[in-house]
Automatic annotation (TrEMBL):
Keyword GTP-binding belongs to the record: no
Family designation: Belongs to the glycosyl hydrolase 43 family.
Top-level taxonomic group: Bacteria
A Pfam family of this chain: Glyco_hydro_43
Name of the protein: Glycoside hydrolase, family 43
Lineage: Bacteria, Pseudomonadati, Pseudomonadota, Alphaproteobacteria, Sphingomonadales
GO molecular function: hydrolase activity, hydrolyzing O-glycosyl compounds
Keywords: Glycosidase, Hydrolase, Signal
InterPro entries according to UniProt: Glyco_hydro_43 (IPR006710), Glyco_hydro_beta-prop_sf (IPR023296), Glycosyl_Hydrlase_43 (IPR051795)
GO biological process, one term: carbohydrate metabolic process
Length: 348
């Protein structure tokens, strides 16, 4: 615990001096294509998991850091490390999205989204490994959850409440063009091993406000001072040629408990695209995850690579990390983490 406290204090020092008036509010900590990042603390290092690497180079790509600002993709020479090199029988490779890892008494459980061979829809799976680096293995013959009548299911997120009960949050893929249905965020209880759902699913939120447009997704449940906050992302994730900035953004809802009911915050979204002379450029921030280091909380998210003129640079989404702060019970993001000054200049 002493090492953890020292690490947390060091990280606070990093974001306390993170930006001055001449710097953007948010800068990436990893400038490779690393969508839907999820961060797990493992001892004195941090492990990040992300959606499949382009070119089918890894089903679940990973990166590591000891300080949250200096990240390196895990690889063996020119080959990326793959946390789940073998897909379960029901799943196709090349469509593994939004992995998250839950630590249990037995080891580690990877929750992921993959393409179901039978329905050709995106569905949820769970795999186990004794090591957070993997290899994660699933012998399941069918998906963990797949709402085939609602477009499929994506973006699973496991949450452990203070009493130890596990919950799985996910989103029906109703915005699949073949279905054209509303999108909802659901919750269902997980078994103690994190590998199976139990009981009935409960619908918590729906895309029903203008800023959300046709989709809400990427649920993240957080308990703070006895209150429950459900973060989520909304709107089109892409940055199309006809768009000045991506409309993707992050909002939240307040919930009475882990299974709701939940109410959208009136000040949504709390993180969205912008291009400002002083604040800098950010396009398409979203698919957040929240993690704690000691008594401090942080948010990881991705946003599109951009030029100095805030135009789309290439088809990559970079990873960002920012402190999650609270004021009057409401979540707020601080300026993002970045490398400390080097030789009198701040690293960009």
């Amino acid at each position: 615990m002493k090492k953890l406290g020292f690490l947390a204090a060091g990280l606070f020092s990093l974001f306390a001096q993170a930006a001055d008036a001449s710097e953007p509010l948010f800068v990436p900590v990893l400038t490779v294509d690393f969508p839907d990042p999820f961060i797990l603390q493992n001892g004195n290092e941090f492990l990040a998991y992300a959606t499949n690497a382009t070119g089918d180079r890894a089903n679940v790509q990973m990166a590591r850091s000891t300080n949250l600002v200096d990240w390196v993709q895990i690889s063996d020479g020119s080959k990326l490390h793959d946390a789940m090199p073998t897909m379960p029988d029901w799943a196709r490779s090349g469509f593994t999205w939004a992995p998250e890892v839950l630590k249990t008494d037995a080891g580690f459980v990877l929750h992921f989204t993959a393409r179901d061979k039978r329905s050709d829809l995106q569905c949820l799976g769970a795999a186990f490994s004794a090591n957070p680096l993997g290899p994660f293995v699933s012998t399941a013959k069918e998906p963990l959850v797949c709402q085939t009548d609602l477009g499929g299911t994506i973006d699973s997120h496991a949450f452990r409440d203070d009493d130890g009960q596990l919950y799985l949050y996910y989103k029906n893929d109703g915005n699949n063009p073949q279905f054209g249905k509303p999108t909802d965020i659901y919750v269902q209880r997980l078994t103690a091993d994190g590998l199976n759902v139990t009981g009935e699913a409960v619908r918590l939120l729906r895309n029903d406000t203008p800023w959300e447009a046709h989709v809400i997704e990427a649920p993240t449940m957080v308990r703070k001072d006895g209150s429950y906050t459900l973060f989520f992302s909304a709107n089109h994730f892409g940055w199309e040629p006809n768009q000045r900035l991506s409309p993707y953004a992050v909002g939240y809802a307040t919930c009475e408990g882990p299974m709701g009911p939940c109410t959208d915050a009136p000040n949504n979204p709390i993180l969205n695209s912008f291009h400002d002379k002083r604040a800098g450029c950010l396009s398409g921030p979203g698919h957040q995850s929240v993690f704690d280091v000691g008594d401090r909380s942080f948010v990881s998210f991705h946003a599109w690579a951009a030029t100095s003129g805030c135009r789309k640079f290439d088809n990559k989404r970079y990873m960002y990390i920012a402190p999650l702060l609270w004021g009057d019970g409401k979540p707020q993001l601080g300026v993002s983490l970045r490398s400390p000054p080097v030789q009198g200049k701040r690293a960009k």
